[in-house]
Amino acid sequence: MTKPIVAIVGRANVGKSTFFNKICGKRISIVDDVAGVTRDRLYADANWSGRDFTIVDTGGVELKSEDVFQKEIIEQVMLAIENATVIIFLVDGKTGITQSDEDVAKLLRKQKVPVVLVVNKLDTFEISATYDFYSLGLGEPFPVSCAQGKGIGDVLDKVISYFPQDSVEEEFEGIKISLVGRPNVGKSSLINRLLGKKRVVVSDIEGTTRDSVAIPFKCNKKDYQLIDTAGLRRQRAVEKQSVEGYSVLRSMDSIERSDVVLIVFDAKSEITEQDVRIAGYVHEAKKPSVILVNKWDEKTTSKEEYLKTLKDKLSFMDYFKVLFVSALTGKGLSAVMTTVDEVFANASKRVTTGILNDIVHDAILNFEPPSKNGKKAKILFSTQASTNPPKFVFFCKEPKNINFSYQRYLENKLREKVDFSGTPIELVFKDKGEE
């Protein structure tokens, strides 16, 4: 299910970024005493009391300011408000109510989204300091001190009370497939070709698809679901067209929901930094994938040359599977669903403990684990803990001495013996005493 979105809104320098960083548990927003440091929305995954959500930080709103950046900031904030499940309106308890606070409150009162009013910078936690803020007409003000971490739990309790109740979705038993890629690489055209009918709007204008669209279908008597996602574009372009920011959010959510990801590249253009970054998102999400090089009928480079570049650019996921296709002519598309089945089967594969330990034993005989400060790592035994992706646990002595190079060596040995093409695999090294 799509996670609720919580947007933090308020004028400049009231502590929105500090509040954001406290909730997501890591320093993502830049925190500075200079007003207006955060101009673009930033977002991160968060969890409170078992409820997952996405927290969004926005730029400081000064509705009547003539600052050259305010128009863009207001556009971004309005998009955050329109897409939010809950809005946190942050104000400054030290400064008190300002005209800007009243302007923003007036704007929020017109929205249909629930608003939680939060009064920050109450380091002494005097509740009486919140009384004046009732006049904003947004209900009970919650006192907090972001700097000290006080009161944030009460705010989050209120926030999650507005979330829709978790409903049990009818479990889809087929394979869920998402398509991701830069705008205008042909994702929607590929879906229409795969389905044999026009189900998704296709346009030459970048960014036509802004929402994720799930389409169930059958192929060779098997059930599948195709998820067309908004095009992911590089961050600088997202800043120029702020609506794309939420398209990225939806695309990331679609990747998480899918069983297999089709990563679409445009054969007519060079492999870009953003193409590599998108592939990296899929790799980090530990999803099996297939790279579709679309518009191959318009390409003059040889497959060998393109593959060489692809291997160089995607060296971090050298397990990738690639197909050269054309949504325009249908060339190469007959292999897509077969390859989807293949990489999903590889991600679902289990290796028996006996076979796994034989592979690991042979690998160790060929190249022993490294030692550090006279302490040698020793792998005692291994087992497969889970699938999708395949996860292998190695119980060791001195596991901290098993460096990245040796981990890659073991992964390569596993891949030599077992076909895990198209899927990442995870290796975990534990001390023999760990649970």
- Tell me, what is the CATH class of the largest domain? Alpha Beta
Characterize the biggest β-sheet. Answer: 6 strands, mixed
Integer-rounded radius of gyration: 25 Å
* Residues in helices, as a percent range: 25-40%
The number of domains: 3
SSE series = EHEEHEHEEHEHEEHHEHEHEHHEEEEHE
Strand order of the largest sheet: 2-3-1-4-5-6
Q: What's the pLDDT, averaged over the residues?
A: 81
- What's the count of strands? 17
Termini Cα gap? 32 Å
Uncertain stretches of 5 or more adjacent residues: 27-41, 199-212, 230-247
Question: What fraction of residues sit in β-strands?
Answer: 15-25%
Identify the CATH architecture of the largest domain. 3-Layer(aba) Sandwich
Outline: globular
> What is the fold named in CATH at topology level of the largest domain?
Rossmann fold
Number of helices: 12
Structural class: alpha/beta
CATH superfamily of the largest domain: P-loop containing nucleotide triphosphate hydrolases
Could you explain how this protein is built, in words?
This protein is α/β, with parallel strands linked by helices and 435 residues long. The protein has 3 domains: 5-161, Rossmann fold (3-Layer(aba) Sandwich); 175-347, Rossmann fold (3-Layer(aba) Sandwich); 353-431, GMP Synthetase, Chain A, domain 3. 31% of the residues lie in helices and 22% in strands. The protein contains 12 helices and 17 strands. The chain has helices spanning 16-24, 70-83, 99-109, 152-161, 187-195, 235-240, 243-257, 273-284, 303-313, 336-347, 353-366, 404-417, and strands at residues 5-9, 42-48, 51-57, 86-92, 115-120, 142-143, 175-180, 213-219, 222-228, 260-266, 289-294, 322-324, 371-372, 375-376, 378-386, 391-397, 426-431. The strands form 4 sheets. Strands 2-3-1-4-5-6 form a 6-stranded mixed sheet, sandwiched between helices. The longest helix has 15 residues, at 243-257. It is globular and about 70 Å long. The relative contact order is 0.08. Mean pLDDT is 81; it is low at 27-41, 199-212 and 230-247.
